[in-house]
Amino acid sequence: MEASTTTSSITENTPGRSPVSTFILKYSLSACAATVAETVTYPLDLTKTRLQIQGEVQAIKHGGLGEPLPTRGMIGTAVGVVEEEGLLKLWQGVTPAIYRHIVYTGCRMGSYEYIRDNLLGRNSDGTFPVWKAATAGMMAGALGQFFASPTDLVKVMMQTEGRRRLEGKPPRVKSAYRAFSYIVRKRGVRGLWQGWVPNVQRAALVNMGDLTTYDTAKQALLRNTTLKDNWLTHALASSCSGLVAASLSTPADVVKTRVMNQPVGKDGRGLLYKSSLDCLLKSVKYEGPFSLYKGFLPIWARMAPWSLTFWISYEKIRSFCGVHTF
Fold this sequence. Notes:
By secondary structure, this protein is mainly α. It is built from 12 helices and no strands. It has helices at about 1-5, 20-50, 60, 75-85, 95-120, 130-160, 160-165, 175-185, 195-225, 230-260, 275-285, 295-320. The two termini are about 15 Å apart. The model is unreliable at about 1-15 and about 55-60 (pLDDT under 50).
């Protein structure tokens, strides 16, 4: 019965607020928590992106022109970035990453709760079935990522600039603003959504793992243990959500990164892959099925502390502002 009380609609705790103002408040709070989590864990995201473009199909497509850089593991890649480009380059692209989360996390968090509490609805005992949580998570993640896709494209572009210089290629951009301008100039406004399909697919899987697992695990802990709705419960639930989200999303993340990072022709079409499916098939054909899990360790190593930092921060910020816990 105690769990049912803790999972009741937050509107009971926000008297006088309209649904719009409640959504805006949650949007702002989740964006603040995501900014903290993103800044702390960003070096792992950059390392993951560099790992995923190692051994890319580009070398095969172009006959292996140029000397390929040595293949490195997670730690070797991070150390290499520091030695060859400087310590601060581990945060290259963090600005558009924060922009992304202001849009993405704000949308996905607000949308998930709205879908959960108003569209799909809870059971009569106050519980929320896993299938409903998964549906709400996928819908919220896809919606948030569609709107945030341009910022994700800029982030990936900036993350790969250091490697381009080491390969003797000319730099494309030096700041988030110039990256946006470059894309619009070369590909038009529609070019800002290059790779949006695998991007949205990945986000749907991430949020099916993250939001579904966190919500389900938290309520299970509250119902079946003596734990209270506090930081320990939030930490345990977030640990589960980070692992599940990483396992589900890594193949889609590899495809997304490669599609978004590929060069494009004058018509704005990618030169390496025709679609996300084409990228998936070529990666498996030329590099084997395990290529789809390149970067899994840094993805999980980043998602775990990101999830932990975000959920604890978000729950505390909500409590501080008088909003019911998630």
